[in-house]
Amino acid sequence: MSAVSDLPAFPMTRLTPFDPPPGYAAAREAGGLARVRLWDGRTAWLVTGYEQVRSLLGDPRISVDRRREGFPFPTPGREALERSGRTTFVGMDPPDHTRLRRVFTKYFAIRRIEALRPVVQDIVDDLITGILADGPPADFVTALAGEVPSRTICHVLGMPLADRAHFQALDHERNTLTTSPENVIRATNEMLAYADELIERKRREPADDLISELVADQLGGDTISREEMVAAVRLLITAGHETTTNMIGLGIATLLQHPDQLAELRAAPSLVPAAVEELLRYISIFHISPTRVVTEPIEIAGHRLEAGDGVIAAVAGANRDDAAFPDADAFDVHREARHHVAFGYGVHQCLGQPLARVELQTVVETLFRRVPSLRLAVDPAELQVKEYAFLSLAALPLTWDEPREGR
Amino acid sequence: MMIEVEIDQCVGGGQCVMAAPDVFDQDDDGLVVVLDENPGPDRADDVALAARLCPARAIRLAGT
Ligand code: HEM
Ligand code: SF4
């Protein structure tokens, strides 16, 4: 076996903003996975083949428990974040994962989330009305992409809208790869305190929202302790936030760079759900995760993974596998993309995906219908796709034609 | 085609409901319910997609 210093370093840098680093294709060609070197000198398996990602994320011989020896982290700050504070079900294996996730599955059932469409539609319409009233140009990351998920989650969980700036800032600090370990821990603890207060408030003054229902269903019961509830509520506040924000921003940017397909979408809104699946696949904001550690030896694609080996199941690589998506590097709203793994795979697959879909579909359909002349206000090369915990877009300056006087 | 689901394995999320809403639903806990255990051949593609999308491999198809 080659020396550790000869292995490619991870995380890898992208050459173009919308495409995974070349090392992902190299790992895929090497049977779907290859060893990489992490900042702390340890190694891990970078998995970028579609079948291999699905197979490993669905394998019970693999753990999400960040405290286990060998668990891979992309940076020291990330290690601090993922090992700090109370973990919740995203960092727990069955049976605890099953017990806790099942407390929350009912709130994210398809039918309940579909019933939120009118609420999300109002949020999106209000924001667009405001943007149009202020006139062009506008930064759509702050004006729209950051607002839709935070307003939606405030509505769903029953949080005051005014609180969103507070948790947005904390969340961003946690997700920035360069944040120091101390600051990551402080931000996490502040969020836990916020979640604790929210639960307390809903206990005293229940309203028509998820947290009130959760408190009524579960607080004081045998299934979930108060501490576990606080940690899970912290996850619900943040999980759907930067993820969906970045998908909205990068999604709009992607569509604007494919004007022919965008014109087709405008002409046939029934294409929007398929286009959203293709955006999720093509962009795959989870570019360096999900991560796992092996607990029992696994043979896969001619490799033997030993207990204690770190696994980086980069869905951004799997979603560009030609074996699963012919001509995978091409963006094509007409392709069948529903089997993408942008929301992960296995028992931890995203619980909030129905909500993310409703938000994305509503934004795409409404924005381009109401503002057909929308276009980039800068050169596409100036768009800054940042690689941190997820791919993110720092700013999205857009412009449009204002209606002429007298119309 | 016969559909069997392993409810103990289900993790909610409703991929199956999205793929074939006339065949799968979710109960009050958000876990899978089969509405039609023996759907006609015209539903075969969507049901196969549901089984393929299920992240917990909780859906098994038997026969044709
Ligand atoms: C486009 C937006 C989103 C993307 C791309 C995304 C992606 C993901 C991925 C890849 C995972 C799996 C992590 C792992 O396997 O370790 C996950 C888990 C999770 N997501 Fe999302 N997510 C999004 C939006 C949301 C929303 C809106 C919510 C809800 C408010 C949410 C709640 C969760 C929760 C609770 C988990 C943990 C599930 C578990 O461990 O059982 N996500 N998400
Ligand atoms: S797709 Fe699988 S895990 Fe998801 S709700 Fe259906 S049966 Fe359950």
From TrEMBL, chain B:
Its cofactor is [3Fe-4S] cluster. The keyword Disulfide bond does not apply. SUPFAM superfamilies: 4Fe-4S ferredoxins. Pfam families: Fer4_15. GO terms for molecular function: 3 iron, 4 sulfur cluster binding; electron transfer activity; iron ion binding. Keywords: 3Fe-4S, Electron transport, Iron, Iron-sulfur, Metal-binding, Transport. InterPro entries: 3Fe4S_ferredoxin (IPR001080), Fe-S_cluster_ET (IPR051269). PANTHER family: FERREDOXIN. Ferredoxins are iron-sulfur proteins that transfer electrons in a wide variety of metabolic reactions. This is Ferredoxin. It comes from Jiangella anatolica.
